Amino acid sequence: DPVVLETDLVGGAANYEALLQAWDELGPVSVDSLVAGQPPLLDFADSSCLYSAAVLWSCSSLVETESPVEQPTAAGISNPYMWDLQTLNVKVSPGGLCQNRSHEVCQARQTKRVWETVGALYISQSPIPRECYIGISILPDFRQKGLGRRACELAVQFAIEGLGVHRVQARIVSSPHSNRARSLFAALGFSHEGVHRRAVVGSAGEWADVMHMGVLDTTWAIRTHVQANAKSLWDEIFERHQREREDLLRFDERQGRLRKTSSMELV
Question: Which of 15, 70, 167, 211 could anchor a disulfide with 117, C-beta 3.0 to 4.6 Å?
Answer without folding.
Answer: 15
